[in-house]
Design goal:
2 copies of one chain form a homodimer.
Chain A (H helix, E strand, L loop, with lengths): L1 E8 L2 E9 L6 E8 L8 E7 L6 H7 L3 H7 L2 E5 L39 H16 L2 E10 L2 H12 L4 E7 L9 H11 L11 H6 L6 E7 L5 H5 L1 H11 L2 E7 L6 H19 L1
Parallel strand pairs in A: 4-5, 4-6, 6-7, 7-8, 8-9
Antiparallel strand pairs in A: 1-2, 2-3, 3-5
Chain lengths: 278, 278
């Protein structure tokens, strides 16, 4: 692991790191904020999965998480959203919603994606191992959140690994990717036309198929231009109601899909995670 | 005034605006955050002047001021740092510390700068008039702060207009530009070789020449690479001591010159302003 930068921030250290990933076959960059802490202490970890077009840098620059993480003693990890590099295929049309910046937190099984687009194993297996080795992280206390495509990733991760992730939340998640254009395009490309293979990467389908978590916090802005076409929180609400999952769904008046929305409610989410991790 | 964008953020509205400036003879872009407030209320205003290479966007993206401004009911205004446009001269060598992004908050008197580089009158006269007309601002309650070159601008503004600015603070300011390379280069170019003309744009010189404010808050990081060569807070400390100005100078261990430093201490500064403006 190579340290790209470390900067004192809010009493802790904001770092950016790079390593050669065996999952993706590429170098991968990620950021970690370690709050101030006592020597020898280990701290709970909140994972933040980013949305379409983002790298680790968007939330690191604009997420406004450090002050609250410092208050609550949370490590904050932000991975990239896809493999990158000259050898990595991208959408031939250059679309923002497939290929680079659009890994959708799955392990692709279909060409040309399968050789590098293995974001699920990267975020679920490889990077956690690195975090556990290189940072003062208590891996028995992990929570996960994310924005948009990353909200999708956080919900599916939380539903598939409820014992690992003791807290799960999302900002404007793609709640039912199998039923919306972004998800149909990406899951169809990465996983193939058989929709049965998509159900393990669709929060609503996972719940329908029996996955359970104790509670979810989800915020969505009512001025989000993707609300009705891509996010569909009502489908998550229906699935949680049918499954008796305690969903707190907050429709935030006037908020859009930007980091202004994310940063406004970041402190609420971090507190929600800290309550469950401490 | 043209609205470039308005976005709901932290309960208020973050806007970016553009207008044709008579001071600079160019279009000028600035950002304003208006916190949540009662209908008809007028709110105190904190000006934030940015540093070398910045536009309004750096602090708007990375300053992490909105949450605290929303708590305290402060309007936050961030102007640009120079005129911009095809007609505006830049440093022929393309240096970052002269010309575009480096207006130094003076009215240039020497060619080729004098035709557009009139940032002092822009920030001190023209833009306040626009803010007073277009936003729910109580112009009897203004404070000013800034970072680096903008800290220099905030200190000189506060010292020259103590009745206007009831609170003055700075992040890593160029405290004595006449005595450091950044300032000597810029003031020499914009104002000419006669150093007597520089004294009205040098916080230490202004204090030596009799300018007074009740109190100043200044933060500087001890890992700031410009601390000893360009910022020289000890010169401000000496001048304030000789003038019985109540300077709170905090040397922050481990912090550099970045927006990680600014955002870490932003809430402290905003509280310090709010105490004096409310």
């Amino acid at each position: 692991m190579e340290t790209i930068s470390t900067i004192r921030s809010h009493g802790g250290v904001q770092g950016v790191y790079c390593h050669a990933s065996s999952s993706t076959g590429t170098d991968m960059t990620f950021s970690v904020f370690v709050p101030p802490h006592a020597v020898g202490a280990v701290l709970p970890v909140v994972w933040y999965l980013s949305g379409l077009t983002c790298t680790h840098a968007n939330v690191t620059d604009k997420g406004e998480y450090r002050r609250t993480c410092a208050e609550l003693g949370l490590i904050f990890v932000a991975p990239d959203t896809s493999p990158r590099g000259d050898s990595v295929p991208d959408d031939p049309a250059g679309a923002y919603d497939l290929g680079l910046g659009a890994g959708f937190y799955v392990d692709a099984t279909h060409a040309p994606w399968a050789s590098h687009y293995r974001m699920w194993r990267y975020v679920m297996d490889e990077l956690p191992g690195l975090i556990a080795r290189a940072f003062p992280a208590d891996m028995k206390r992990q929570g996960i959140t994310g924005h948009s495509m990353g909200g999708h990733g956080a919900l599916t991760a939380g539903l598939r690994y409820p014992e690992r992730f003791r807290s799960v939340s999302a900002f404007a998640p793609i709640a039912a990717p199998s039923q919306v254009p972004w998800g149909e395009k990406a899951l169809g490309a990465y996983l193939g036309a058989d929709r049965a293979a998509w159900r393990g990467h669709d929060a609503v389908a996972l719940i329908e198929d029996g996955a359970r978590v104790p509670a979810l916090l989800v915020d969505v802005g009512d001025a989000d231009p993707f609300l009705d076409s891509q996010l569909r929180p009502e489908l998550l609400q229906d699935a949680c109601a049918a499954a008796a999952i305690d969903l707190t769904l907050r429709i935030q008046p006037g908020y859009d899909h930007s980091y202004h929305f994310v940063s406004t409610f970041m402190a609420d989410h971090l507190r929600w995670h800290a309550e469950r991790l401490q």
